[in-house]
Predict the structure.
Amino acid sequence: MTLRKEQSDTIILGIESSCDDTSAAVVKNGILLSNVTAGQAVHEAYGGVVPELASRAHQQNIVPVVDQALKQAGVAREQLSAVAVTLGPGLMGSLLVGTSFAKGMALSLGIPLIEVNHLQGHVLAHFIRKEGDDHAAPPFPYLCLLVSGGNSQIVRVDAYNKMTILGQTIDDAAGEAIDKCSKVMGLGYPGGPIIDRLARKGNPKAYAFSKPHVEGLDYSFSGLKTSFLYFLRDHVKEDPDFIEHHKEDLAASLEQTIVDILVKKLSMAVKQTGIRHVALSGGVSANTGLRNAFKARGRSGQWHIYIPEFGYTTDNAAMIAMTGYYKFGDGDFCSLDKPAYSRTVI
């Protein structure tokens, strides 16, 4: 591929389509200029993301979302230095929409394509900066607790391109457990925001649920999910309206149990590595209880904590564009024939 001549500004278009959010963002010289995301309400009726419906919605959203991101940034396509795209992991149909669009755009403009691992993007969300931002990014090395609907990992980050998974879930992820427990309670989808809202009104010590005993720094949430299910089954037998009468306490107790599990293993990682700079990333990092637990560690002086803005917790292209910006500086480009992938590690 013939690349255009070097330019003084580095302008990266980021594209994210790994699940049900179509997102595009523009980063110029390390500063975020725009971040546009289109969600998909169609999945609410099914209690979860339907892959076929997600890919169709991405096809409808990708062009207007990219167009809006460029307009908000005040950037013409011809000014772009490269296109960064989530190549995986994620839903294959959804990924193919974003990667196909990104490859076509890079080819038509004669600019490089940059592969971004979705999980790596979440870990580096702390480096997203807007003009005038004064928040501090975590210094290397730092530990990152990455918690989302599909992943629960403790990651050691030594550089933007050097990450080591110290622990991860061996079954369900934390976000997945929350969504499934919410569904069992009949609260709707997505469960995370609903549980969070109810938990603010409930007693986190009202009920006790099973906590796994897993060696090392790995997580497990399947036992908690089963414990919660059996608990509800037994109490609903005695009182058919048990869930409705106690949903705030149930949500608060469930949330507290998950936060305790997450923070306990993370504390072990801090002790084992001696690294006290600790960051939070992923969709579940928007949870109020988990954020409060982090803030408590920060106030006590045990950890130097880093919590992302709410807008950068869920899937977004800002983290993809920012990761692409760092990779562009190293000339870390991707061939146009590299396929998308549904599963991988950092």
About this structure: The chain has two domains: 11-133+313-329, 142-310. The longest helix spans residues 242-273.
